[in-house]
Structure prediction request, 337 residues.
Amino acid sequence: MEEQKNKRGKVGLAAFLLADVLLIGAAAYMIVMRQQDIPAGVSLSSTAAATTETWMAETEAASTEPEESVPLELTDEIDSRFAYVWNVTEDRVLAEKNGQERMYPASMTKLMTLLLACESGIAMDTPYVFDKDMLDPLIAQGASRVGFEPEETVTFADLLYGSILSSGGDATAALAEVVDGDEASFAKHMNRRAQDLGMFDTHFVNASGLHDDEHYSTARDIALLLEKTLENATCREILSTSVYTTSRNSVHPNGMEIRSVVELRMQDYQPEQVKFQGGKTGFTDQAGYCLASFAEQGSDTYIVVVAGGEEKNAPTQDTQKLYDLLCGTSEQNPEQD
Prediction:
């Protein structure tokens, strides 16, 4: 009798323990389901199937998304050895030709000189007096000049406009002196700023772009420089100006009227798809003919840099062609043959 009671007691204890295990398991299951946002009563197998279907649907949708556009590789479409076409607003490179290979930037260098001068905070009416010792070396090197004379007093604004519109080496050298004391110090400033802008394949030796084997850049880097320059309202205004008259002084009582070299070069090569705004030309025997420019269409801003042209009209013709081929139209990245 006692033995039967013991057996019933053991069975009851086992049943009690089994019930506890089942309750604990059920509670754990409900917690897991709640954490995973899986409704109670839905089996793990059906949940896994639903997850798999969702993953497959997402994968299929991703595979149908358009691929990121690839820049058009230019070859014989243009005469310039180097080119870079950029939709700045969309941050999209539309085309390039040797765009990241080193080249000599010539007077496109003056974009950096302009930027640093405008960033210096020097007042526009700050006077500067030219001296013979500064001008004579520029004349000997055959540098382009505005036409300022020894002992002539001009303003900081005259130097800014003269450096861009006339591509004047006299104005550029003066800016370097006013901003940093001398051209060597200014060149170091230029190189520091270039690194800040991500122009990692650029090195400047002087403020004007006169040839030096160690004075180089790329079409891409010049595009980055121009884009940053355009962010400065004063720089943008100067680059877009057609005509400027220097301040009156004893040497030029009526001032000097200077016209934009870029506008004169582009007057017969105006693109139809965009509104050409301005830019900076360049030339040395080693660099060839160059042009960095910008244009607008609607809310979009475009930059085109061409360099290494063999003929004087090569950069203007190529610039017109690239703007009309790639910018301001619905077909901004035609397929390559």
Remarks:
- The longest strand covers residues 275-284.
